[in-house]
Amino acid sequence: MSTILVTGGAGRLGRSVVTVLAHAGHDVVSVDRVEVPGLPATQIVRELGDAASFREVFEAHQPDAVVHLAAIAVPFSAPDEVIYRTNTTLAFGVVEAAKQTGVGTVLIASSPTVIGYNAPDGWQPTFLPLDEDHPLAPWNAYSRAKVKIEEFVEEEVRAGTPLRLGVFRPCYVIAPEEWFGAPTQQGHTIEERLDDPALSAVSLFNYVDARDAGDFVLAWLAQPHAAPNGSVFFVGAGDSLVREPVPGALARFVPETAALADALGDTDPVFSSARAERLLGWSPRRSWRTEFAAESDESEEARESEATA
Ligand SMILES: NC(=O)c1ccc[n+]([C@@H]2O[C@H](COP(=O)([O-])OP(=O)(O)OC[C@H]3O[C@@H](n4cnc5c(N)ncnc54)[C@H](O)[C@@H]3O)[C@@H](O)[C@H]2O)c1
Prior knowledge:
The chain is α/β, with parallel strands linked by helices and 309 residues long. The protein has helices spanning 14-23, 51-61, 80-101, 141-158, 190-195, 198-201, 210-222, 246-253, 258-261, 274-280, 288-308, and strands at 3-7, 27-32, 42-45, 65-68, 105-109, 164-170, 173-174, 208-209, 232-235.
């Protein structure tokens, strides 16, 4: 058992990451500007910012590893300058403070948006499915900050960092309660996203259950040396968040992808998590086809028992 400090542990992704790590037997410290009732962690409420703020919490809690999730997580939810400055400052601060305090291992959240697939002026994939070798084309403050963070990790490794570093790009995160009707990050329910494929087409139908992303974090922390230092991983579901066959849906909603879309099977994800599977033995266990259907079955059962009551 070790002590893992999760920044942003109260968030959509953080709550599941904290829960998975705690259930696996780790001591978890969540540092966030808000608290969540019932989170299986020591919760520290504080505003993180520069390296000094991270140093204080690292010195107080002496974590063996840090999972850095805290960020402005929604593109365009704040002025560009604020998103870029906040997200890069937080990531820079985490790495600097880890070096200064002897924390050995840091995993940082990036985003699939670094690929640039939803650029208003159009975007052309080089190949499908998209993997970690695909060229990047960020076009807004959020994705530019994530690219900067990935470059910063690369630079850190090149400079001979004493840290073990990793970066993951979780696909559109679905928290467990969202299978049961809670709004997703963009405010729509899962049912609305499935009923109107245009809503998910902007992110090429990518998604991941937050608990599966938590399992990825657990797998990475268990074997941080399994991949070259600073490695980047896509972390997505094993299928796409769309009811119709994926090649047709891509051709209909994202015509630039049509020429390459036939490389995909009818339910395939557009983003490949094969690297995580190959190097870490992680693969997603949950799909909307099981999780959302489970919700429908339960609703059905509830309706039937109400009708017979
Ligand atoms: N949700 C997604 O679909 C998605 C997809 C790709 C990448 N990501 C990345 O994953 C990470 C987590 O995303 P999320 O969806 O859980 O976001 P979220 O907004 O639900 O959670 C982020 C948490 O960080 C906290 N936080 C933010 N700034 C802070 C600060 N300065 N000091 C202390 N706490 C702070 C917030 O209070 C919040 O609880 C982010 O880095 C995000 O960019 C998320």
